[in-house]
Amino acid sequence: MLLTINNLQASIDGMDILKGINLNVNAGEVHAIMGPNGSGKSTLASVLAGREEYEVTGGEVLFNGKDLLELAPEERAREGLFLAFQYPVEIPGVSTTNFLKTAVNQVREHRGLEPLDAVSFLRLMKEKMQLVEMSQALLNRSLNEGFSGGEKKRNEIFQMAMLEPQLAILDETDSGLDIDALRIVASGVNKLKGKDNAVIVVTHYQRLLDYIVPDFVHVLYKGRIVKSGTKELAMELEEKGYDWIKAEVEAGA
Ligand code: ADP
Ligand code: MG
Ligand code: MG
Q: Where are the domains positioned within the chain?
């Protein structure tokens, strides 16, 4: 098992947000986490990323058998976890290229591999640029500085392709995500996924799942996964919205 989440509970400012999340993710799988606004999807992603403002109040998370919650955010990245918003900051004066050279070699060092020399690094860049249709001009600019929404997305997906994470968690919070950005994310995910890695896509847009076909769909509501299924569940949600799920939960409560 790549990722095991057992009864995970978390709070922010003393407010309980995650109330016992259970989730198992195997290599080779794509999971979608959906749910109405405010249900805790971004909180879950943030807790897995190790963002400080969230307090874990119970449960455990194992990544490749290791206690993920013990690791600092950058250690999680080195272990092979990628979160799209780990690097959303604008870094003036640091190009994507320089940023990635450091990040890629840190991951390699952690895996016991030699750092890439300049030539090999450039070769890898070229290969991945073609894969995600990234332009050289974008790479030469300071990281995220003045990037449009679509450019940020493409850059994010490019970073993911370069780092070859074992598990990528993409939180598609942006309500302004246009169809181009959706396609960029989807094609990146579809190219990354393989038998050795897994992807968790967090979204409340069924539309994204027209492009990414998930193996499993989970509905998060009020801090719990209240329903799991396959892509048919996403289609049902597209058709019927979330009200029937809320009703089921209230009836069962
Ligand atoms: P989702 O991503 O499903 O829309 P979130 O995880 O963003 O949901 O939010 C879940 C709940 O936690 C909401 O009630 C939200 O208001 C609250 N919350 C999330 N982040 C914070 C924060 N930084 N400070 C205070 N409350 C927060
Ligand atoms: Mg939200
Ligand atoms: Mg969110």
A: 3-252
Query: Does the C-beta of 40 come closer than 6 Å to ligand 1?
Result: yes
C-beta 13 within 6 A of ligand 1: yes
Q: What is the DSSP letter of 115?
A: P
Identify which has the larger pLDDT, 152 or 125.
125
| Burial of 248 from C-beta contacts in 10 A (0-12 / 13-18 / 19+) | middle
Task: State whether the Cα torsion 217-62-39-192 is positive or negative.
Answer: negative
Closest CA to 187 of 133, 148, 151: 133
The predicted-structure confidence for 102-139, as pLDDT tens digits, reads as follows 889 988 998 899 999 999 999 999 999 888 888 888 87
Provide the pLDDT for residue 153: 81
Residue bearing the CA closest to ligand 1, atom 24: 12
Helix (H) or strand (E) holding 22: strand 15-25
Q: Give the C-alpha separation, 25 to 64, whole Å.
A: 10
C-alpha of residue 85 to centroid of ligand 2, in Å = 14
State ipTM.
0.94
pTM equals: 0.91
CATH 3.40.50.300 fits 3-252, yes or no: yes
Give residue 101 CA to ligand 2 midpoint distance, Å: 33
8 Å CB contact between 61 and 67: yes
